[in-house]
Design a protein that fits this description.
Elements: E1 20-21, E2 25-26, H1 27-30, H2 32-37, H3 40-45, H4 48-52, H5 67-82, H6 105-112, H7 122-127, H8 132-142, H9 149-154, H10 174-180, H11 182-194, H12 208-216, H13 224-246, H14 256-273
Antiparallel strand pairs: 1-2
Helix pairs in contact: 8-13, 10-11, 11-14, 13-14
Zinc ion (ZN) binds at residues 164, 166-167, 169-170, 176, 181.
Length: 284
């Protein structure tokens, strides 16, 4: 029996809460009172085919259905009658999350994300060739989820925000640590200059997301993956330097000049690790 649109996970249930019938509308929405009157065991054991056979779904309704409930049943009846059915064909599974009716994780994920604000920087992160842990790091950074002392203070983990561990000129917050601190700005400037990029380094008002999204527009399209990777690498290394100071690991603390050398070496290694694709990222 070919019925109507039924979500595959409840395709066999005629009056189950997740079932979608009648042009994609929930049974629960069409006839909520009638739906509530059916006991759970019956809901979980009925099949669509059984329920439609001689309209036996009417016998599932509870004995104390109100007048309004019966009115809803009449509407449901009409809706069912409108569905074009071929009793000779078997029930067919369809997935309401995709146009073709076939289930896919991609369509389902998209359906779950409907109405949500898209994270604008996901492509630069995703398409970069940074290691996964660094991609994850920068995603947290863009979401302000790293445990800088201002965040620890907000969450009651310390009495007050600490001052920047480099310059003591501002609090230890993410924008300052990664972009605005004189140390960070020197590192950015050094890397941008060494890479021959014609873009302005971060200033005292920059945030990672605003600077990154505007700077990458000035980079040639074919170089953007590498530029994004470099941004992630620099932010990652600055963050590690901050942590080396927070936790007093003096042997891991680098001067600006040492950082530039270290970042250049790391970038070379990341590039080598990127399978098969050679990339030019230097002055022409
Ligand atoms: Zn600072």
């Amino acid at each position: 029996m070919s019925v109507f649109r039924v979500a595959d996970f409840v395709a066999t249930m005629a009056l189950k809460s997740d079932g979608r019938d009648c042009g994609g509308e929930h049974l629960e929405d069409i006839a909520p009172l009638a739906f509530d009157s059916v006991n759970t065991r019956r809901k979980n054991s009925r099949t669509v085919a059984d329920a439609l056979l001689d309209n036996s779904w009417l016998r599932d309704l509870g004995p104390e259905l109100s007048v309004e409930g019966w009115a809803q049943c009449i509407r449901l009846w009409d809706e069912i009658e409108l569905v074009d059915r071929d009793a000779s064909r078997p029930d067919r599974f369809t997935w309401p999350g995709s146009i073709k009716g076939a289930y896919s994780a991609k369509d389902t994920y998209r359906m779950l994300c409907l109405g949500q604000e898209e994270f604008s920087m996901y492509k630069p992160i995703w398409h970069s060739f940074a290691p996964p842990k660094c991609k994850f790091f920068v995603w947290l950074a863009l979401r302000y989820r790293l445990w800088t002392s201002d965040r620890r203070h907000r969450h009651g983990l310390q009495d007050r925000s600490a001052a920047c561990y480099w310059c003591l000129q501002d609090e230890d917050n993410l924008d300052h640590v990664l972009m605005r601190c004189p140390y960070a700005r020197q590192v950015w400037f050094g890397c941008i200059t060494a890479a021959g990029l014609n873009i302005v380094e971060p200033n005292r008002d920059s945030s990672l997301e605003s600077w990154w999204s505007s700077a990458r527009d000035l980079v040639r399209r074919r170089d953007r993956n590498s530029f994004d990777t470099l941004v992630i690498l620099i932010a990652w290394q600055i963050w590690k330097q901050r942590n080396a100071r927070v936790f007093g690991n003096t042997n891991l603390q680098f001067s600006t000049a040492q950082m530039l050398i270290h970042i250049k070496e790391e970038f070379g290694l990341w590039r080598l690790a990127k399978r098969g694709e050679e990339y030019q990222f230097a002055r022409e």
